[in-house]
Amino acid sequence: MKWMKQVFWRRRLWLYAIFILVLGILAYVSMTSIFLRQETERNPVRAALYAESISNALTRLDHLPYALAADPKVLVAIISGDGTAINPYLSEIAERAQAEVVYLMSASGVTVAASNYENADSFVGQFYAFRPYFLDAMNGQTGHFFAVGVTTGRPGYFVAEPVRDGNGNIRGAAVVKIGLSALTGAWSGSNDQILVVNEDGIILAASTPAHLFGTIRPLTTAQRQTLADQRQFAEAPLEMIDWSETANGRASLDGVGYLLNKAPIPREGWTLYYLSSVTGIRLRALLYEAIGLAVVLLAAISVSVFRSAQLDRALSVSNADRQRLTNEIEERRLAEARLNKAQTELARTSRLAALGQLSASITHELGQPISAMRNYLAAEEIEAGSAPGTLNRDLSSLVDRMQNITDQLRFFATPSRRASERIDLAIALRGAEKLLLHDFDQNKIKFT
């Protein structure tokens, strides 16, 4: 019977375990589906916000090169080829505008003044005529170009404006370099991946520095030659990253699955790729499930503790009742023992009372005959002139013994007790022998 109960409970535990497992799987699948749907709805908005922040960063200083190009001091420095006087001015402007570098270029492509003139990697005296932004400015247009700095090795976005003299002739260019490191540095704190990709598929900015200047598709020979001529990415190898994209809005980066959302950056024809980790979503579902399981376990433990406390209280009450019942049983047993003892004493007292009454009756009935016998013996002794107890010694002794017997019977008839006294057992033994001598003779018993 015991093993059947054990089998029953084991099966029941297995059923509970399977039920909890199935429930956990269903909950995990449901939560993962919900989180995926939420991310699918939110990610386009997030991608658009990140793309807008990039656009704002690129356009926020568009006015600065234009304002510098209109400044007479700039024209004087470019024409003279000496930027000593204007360098501090450019440094102050760069600091206030939070630009990485502000500099002036002559028509030959040589930098004549720069805000970083005091630094080891100063632009002053550097030749940048090969940059597309300079060529655009010399053609009378506003130049825009993203590139890795030839001198500093840091990527940035360059905006250039032509500097004209009073006759409208282009004498040089005013250029502002905007750094994106502060903006992209804030992305590294996110679990998601962000890539800014140009039209050639080259990654210009990334939340993971290892992806910077990688490509999401192979470059043609012509593309590589153009990039080399412009020195846009310096010595970067421009190798493909571990990237694949599917048509259902999913992508894989470095072997990890992501939800993919794109947002355009219209100014340069760039595209922002916002990648939300599917693994992160699954981990979040597991976290929520773990929290739910913890809550359920906590509730179960609370219920168990509450029931245990109730059982302890019930057990305490039961123990108290059992102890009280044990005490009552013990008291009843003692009472019964006292009652039995009292009944025994009562029966003994009753027997003694009856014996006393019988003794009193015998003593009363025998007292007078013994007294009469003693008087007769005394009269005979007086008549014969004999001393007391000498006429018939056996008869006198017998009367004395009968008197002693009645005295002993009188002891049972009276409630008072005689004082203890010393007796001679030999005398009592001889008296008993004389009382039983007839029986001894009749039954042929030799008394020793």
Fold and architecture overview:
With 448 residues, the protein is of the alpha+beta class. It contains 10 helices and 11 strands. It has helices at residues 2-59, 63-69, 72-80, 87-97, 132-138, 181-185, 221-230, 278-384, 393-413, 425-442; strands at residues 101-106, 111-114, 143-148, 155-164, 170-179, 193-197, 203-206, 243-245, 250-253, 256-265, 270-277. It has a 6-stranded antiparallel sheet with strand order 7-6-11-10-9-8. Strand 9 and strand 10 (256-265) form a beta hairpin. The radius of gyration is 65 Å and the shape is rod-shaped.
Strand and helix layout:
Layout: H1 2-59, H2 63-69, H3 72-80, H4 87-97, E1 101-106, E2 111-114, H5 132-138, E3 143-148, E4 155-164, E5 170-179, H6 181-185, E6 193-197, E7 203-206, H7 221-230, E8 243-245, E9 250-253, E10 256-265, E11 270-277, H8 278-384, H9 393-413, H10 425-442
